[in-house]
Design goal:
single chain; mainly alpha; 11 helices; 0% strand
Length: 255
């Protein structure tokens, strides 16, 4: 979910001084970013960005405070410093006339929603997804990609470059390239690299299509074996499941 849609969601969350839905729909980017709810979105995203870059939690609040006090001023920080208490403190300081935003229940729910939206980009608690923090589905996709690289990639690379001549070595090399490209694309997707999701979906689709083309080529040359067709059928099911997950993960992040 991008920041503008997150701000719209936080505006709808109000229990007092509600903004009519038709008026909210007409607000442009500049008007949304000028809304007091934007403070919540900006603080939450800043917290997750700093956390993903390895900042300690206490340092994160000092960094955000240093940026905002130049424009809005500062007061003593809350003793029980959390993302929720810090956000509540900044709302009181920056928007003293917005009583609806000072309700502790509203702030708690708004911070939770904003954090969930940011975790789509930065991982749980602002940590870039790793073996301990990434969702189980991410681990499953990564495990599949690594397995393909080990079995299909190394196996076909050895056949394509081996001293023993094999018919159409280019087929083996193409399958090896796809396998290694798949694991690289999945790593890029997990780390939220630019274009990582597109690369991962493209390589998963290529794994399915080129796998069956290789089977068809083997049947044409008389090299196909029933075990290879069975293995490609299983591979297709696993690749399709991973492809659906990668696509769904992005779709879930949309409003």
């Amino acid at each position: 979910m991008d920041d503008l849609n997150l701000i719209r969601l936080l505006v709808r969350l109000r229990t007092r001084d509600r903004v009519p839905e038709d008026a909210l729909a007409r607000l442009g980017a500049a008007e949304l970013l000028a809304r007091p709810e934007a403070t919540i979105a900006v603080i939450a995203r800043g917290w997750h960005e700093f956390r993903a870059n390895g900042y300690a939690e206490a340092d994160i609040y000092r960094e955000i405070e240093a940026r905002r006090l130049r424009e809005y001023g500062a007061e003593p920080l809350p003793a029980d410093l959390t993302l929720e208490s810090f956000t509540r403190y900044r709302l009181r300081l920056e928007h003293p006339g917005e009583a609806a935003l000072h309700d502790p229940a509203y702030v708690a729910q708004a911070v939770r929603l904003a954090s969930e939206a940011c975790e789509r980009d930065y991982g749980p608690r602002g940590e870039a997804p790793g073996a301990r923090s990434m969702p189980a589905g991410h681990l499953a996709v990564l495990a599949y990609a690594v397995l393909v690289a080990l079995v299909q990639g190394l196996g076909n690379l050895g056949k394509g470059l081996g001293t023993r001549a094999v018919p159409d070595a280019w087929v083996n090399l193409a399958l090896a390239v796809i396998a290694f490209g798949l694991v690289a694309a999945v790593f890029a997707w997990i780390q939220q690299a630019r274009g990582g999701r597109v690369a991962a979906t493209a390589m998963l689709a290529a794994e399915i299509v080129l796998g069956w083309l290789a089977v068809a080529h083997g049947m044409h040359t008389g090299e196909a074996m029933a075990s290879v067709e069975w293995a490609q059928g299983l591979n297709t099911v696993l690749a399709a499941a991973c492809l659906a997950y990668v696509h769904r993960w992005k779709a879930d992040a949309r409003p």
